[in-house]
Amino acid sequence: MTCHLKVITREEHLRFVAARPSVSHLQIPAWGDVKPDWQAESLGWFDEGGDLVGAGLVLLRPLPGVRRYLAYLPEGPVVDWAATDLERWLEPMLAYLKGRGAFSVRMGPPVVARRWSAEAVKAAIADPAARRLGDVEATVREPGADGVAQQLLRMGWRRTEPGSEDGFAAGQPRYVCQVPLTGRSLDQIQNGFNQQWRRNIKKADKAGVKVVRGDQEDLPAFYELYAETAERDRFAPRPLTYFQRMWTALTAEDPDRMRLYLAHHDGEVLAAATMLTVGEHVWYSYGASTARRREVQPNNALQWRMMCDAHELGAAVYDFRGITDTLDEDNHLLGLLRFKTGAGGEAVEYLGEWEYPLNRVLHRALGLYMARR
C-alpha cells in the first residue's frame, strides 16, 4: 500500500488527534501558534481509500536571506511506526519538504526504546560503577524499537547527538520520567511513592499548603517564580510573553488543554506549574518555585494535586518530561531525577531525534553554526 501526502487543514488535523489515545502536545495544530518564529503546516497521510491514516505538525524555520528552511517535526510525525516499510511513510514526507524548500529535516519518532523502574533507577544511582542510565540494564526493552532505528539508518537518517553532557538533547528530551496511572487508584499511586515523597505530602498538608488552579491572570505570579528557578538552576528562561501566547493558543484549541496550578502558604505563592493534556496523556510542562519556606514542601503538594486531577481526567500516564541520564553525584540535575522517580515514575528512553540532509552543504553549514553557539 502506498501513502499519499498533502497539507491538511487544522480541523482535519485536530480530528485525527482527537481520535487517538495519545499524541504529543508538540504535534497538535495549536503548537504552531506557540512558535511564531517558525512557519507551521499540518501534513496528512492518506491511504488508497482516501482515509487519513497519519498526521504531523511540521515547523519550518527559514534561513536568513534565502528561501530555504529547516523542517522540524518535534515528537512526530504520528504514523505507523510499527510498519516494516517505513519508506512508504517517510519518503513522501521528504519529497514534499524538499519541494517546499527544506534543506534538512529533523524529527522525533514517538517510539519508546527502554524503560527502567523507579527501583532500578534508585539502584543505579547508588551504584558507584554506574555513570549513565543508558549503560544500566533496562527493566523493559520495547520490542520493535531496534527495528525502527535500523530502518531509519538504512534510509539515510542519522540520530542527532545530545546537545550537552547532561543527557538533554538540543531538541526534545530523549529521556523522560512517567508515572503510569491506568488501572491504579489514588491510594495505589501514592503507595508507589518513596517514603520521602509520602512524608513531604503529609508535611505540606499539616503546614496548610493549599494548591489551587490558576488562570491566565496568574501567569505573572508563575513567571516570577519561574525566573527565580531559572537563576537558581542555571538555565535560560523563556519570556513571560511565551507563556501568555502558549495559554492563548492551547486553550483556544481546547479550554482544558493547558492548566496552571499554584501552591499557596500564608498568603504567598511558593510554587507553580503548568499542566498539558492531550487525550490520555498528561504532561507536567513547566515548574517554578521559590527557595523560601521550602520546609513546607509545596512542590510535592503541587505535583500530587496535579496527579490527582490527571487521574480524575482518566489519564493513562502522568509525564514528568525530561530527566538527565547522568548518574554523577556532582551533576546538579541528579536531584531532579531523584525527585521525579521518587514519585514512582519510571525512566523512559525514546529513540531520540533524527535528521535527514536534503541539501548536504546547507545541512553541514547549519551543523557548524550550531556547534559554535
UniProtKB/TrEMBL annotation:
One Pfam family recorded for the sequence: FemAB
Keyword Cell wall biogenesis/degradation recorded: yes
Top-rank taxon, per record: Bacteria
Positions of the N-acetyltransferase domain: 209-373
Entry keyword set: Acyltransferase, Cell shape, Cell wall biogenesis/degradation, Peptidoglycan synthesis, Transferase
PROSITE patterns in the record: FEMABX, GNAT
Family: Belongs to the FemABX family.
Name of the protein described by the UniProt record: Peptidoglycan bridge formation protein FemAB
Source organism per UniProt: Streptomyces ambofaciens
